Amino acid sequence: MRDPTFSDDQLRELLPRLRRFARWLTRDADSADDLVQATLERALIRWGSRRDDAALRAWLFSIAYRQFIDDKRRARRHALMLELLGRSAPAEQASVEREVVAQSVVQALERLPDEQRHLLLWVSVEGLSYCEVADLLDIPIGTVMSRLSRARSALRRLGDGEVPRTTVLRLLK
């Protein structure tokens, strides 16, 4: 039987990283706290289903990411229902914090597509391995590597001031 205090210590150690990740996903401190709470609740309910203690960080990030996506879908459905009923969703206030933080790299990172931004965040900031990210997204490692390469290239171009353009796929004969 596993020592429950050991698991508590692991969760406490990962909590700041999980909060930082949730903050990047939601772009709002209150929403990030809600996401972390929902993630921890879901993790504790499914504690027995985790594979091993070494992959706890990737497992928690996976839960948080999937919870975030589920919440986004739920919000879209809710907005659609309000629209169909003739009511509009309340307008969001512009974030003063976003206006104050006007650094070039942060702006470029925000302009990246969600998938590219998440990959860069997981690998570069959170330090997840390619294998952990591949498990998180349930895709091959080679796909992670190529997507990460494209994300880094796009971030570099945006940081240099280039205007983003749609990617043209090459036709192979």
Structure, explained:
- The chain is mostly helical.
- The protein has two domains: 92 residues, RNA polymerase sigma factor, region 2, helix turn helix motif (Rna Polymerase Sigma Factor, Chain: A), CATH 1.10.1740.10; 70 residues, Arc Repressor Mutant, subunit A, CATH 1.10.10.10.
- It is 70% helix and 0% strand.
- The protein has eight helices and no strands.
- The chain starts with a helix and ends in a 14-residue tail after the last helix.
Strand content: under 5%
Structural class category:
mainly alpha
Provide the helix percentage: 55-70%
CATH superfamily of the largest domain: RNA polymerase sigma factor, region 2, helix turn helix motif
Tally of structural domains: 2
Distance N to C terminus: 57 Å
> What is the fold-level CATH name, i.e. the topology of the largest domain?
Rna Polymerase Sigma Factor, Chain: A
In DSSP terms (H or I, runs of 4 or more residues), the helix count works out at 8
Number of strands: 0
Q: Show unreliable segments.
A: 1-6
